[in-house]
Amino acid sequence: MTEWPDLAALELLVGIDDHGGLGAAARTVGIAQPNATRSVRRLEKQLGAVLVKRGRSGSVLTPEGTVVAHWAREVLTGAHRLLDAAAALSAEHHPELVVASSMTVAEHLIPRWLGAFRAVHDDVQIQLQVHNSMQVCDIAAAGGCDVGFVEGPSVPTGLQSVEVARDELVVVVAPGHPWARRRRPLTVAELAATPLVVREEGSGTRRTLDLALQEYTRPAPLLELGSGAAVRTSALGGVGPAVLSNLAVADHVETGQLRVVAVEELDLSRVLRAVWRPPRVLEGLAGELLRMIVRSRQAGPVRGRTTGT
């Protein structure tokens, strides 16, 4: 197995692309140039490609280096989001802002939201609790969080809520599944009659699916799993058809690892909401976070959709 690349070496590669030389890139990362040279050479040896062309006038990226730098940017962005999410999950601090979130929102939206919030409020300690949507609503109703984020068709009475995003569930299968070769969409009855890999009861994903198929007699689930990632892994492994958020499968659909199966006249769109206890207007740090999320939504759509709603 290939050894994981050093993130500092990836930062240097991106720095060369941005600043036009290894010396400037080393200063940006904060390491001495000889160390930077050794780091880049180790990366080249590890990847088996010449990434930097060295000359009297300085260092520039080779075509291969340019391609690797492009992907390095995404890796570094993901690493920063991981650190933001990990900092929020840490229970070692005394948080000033407690956020509860459903798993889908926590996996695909919360890191970006909290990253933007921390860029403005770097002194605020945040605790992130991850549960299914029903549990998040219970926590919010009991005052166990400042704001919660849920998915699903409804919010319990007594909680305030506002829409923060829209999403759609899709039926996905591995490329080898017979449904991947269908020329016609499934009927709703066919979907309802098929054992599926699904989320556990209480999740927003499961509630949306159950409500959409409530008029049909359905078999027991093929598998019932506690996270979207586990459901996706089962679908990728060919266990059976699965129903998941667009956000959770967009990358795998784009690469062909999963296929979306169309279903006639079935609406699996849903609203993602922030929830909190009264009063009606959310104040304080939680209110600032919510307003930031709403403004970012107005500025552009959520990425990662495989179909339109």
* Number of DSSP helical runs: 12
Portion in strands: 15-25%
Q: Give me the count of strands.
A: 11
Q: Spans of 5+ residues with little confidence (pLDDT < 50)?
A: 301-309
Give the helix level as a range of percent: 40-55%
Record keyword descriptors for this entry.
single chain, disordered C terminus, seven-stranded mixed sheet, flat, 12 helices, 3 domains, D-Maltodextrin-Binding Protein, domain 2, alpha/beta
What does this structure look like?
The chain has 309 residues and is an alpha/beta fold. It folds into 3 domains: 7-81, Winged helix-like DNA-binding domain superfamily/Winged helix DNA-binding domain (Arc Repressor Mutant, subunit A); 84-165 and 270-299, D-Maltodextrin-Binding Protein, domain 2; 167-269, D-Maltodextrin-Binding Protein, domain 2. It is 44% helix and 19% strand. It has 12 helices and 11 strands. It has helices at 7-19, 22-29, 33-47, 63-89, 103-108, 110-120, 133-141, 188-192, 204-212, 228-236, 246-254, 284-299, and strands at 52-55, 58-61, 97-102, 126-131, 147-151, 160-173, 197-199, 223-225, 242-245, 259-261, 269-276. Strands 3, 4, 5, 6, 9, 10 and 11 form a 7-stranded mixed beta sheet that branches. Helix 9 links the parallel strand 7 (197-199) and strand 8. Helix 1 (7-19) crosses helix 3, helix 4 (63-89) crosses helix 6 and helix 6 (110-120) crosses helix 12 (284-299). The longest helix has 27 residues, at 63-89. The two termini are 40 Å apart. Mean pLDDT is 88; it is low at 301-309.
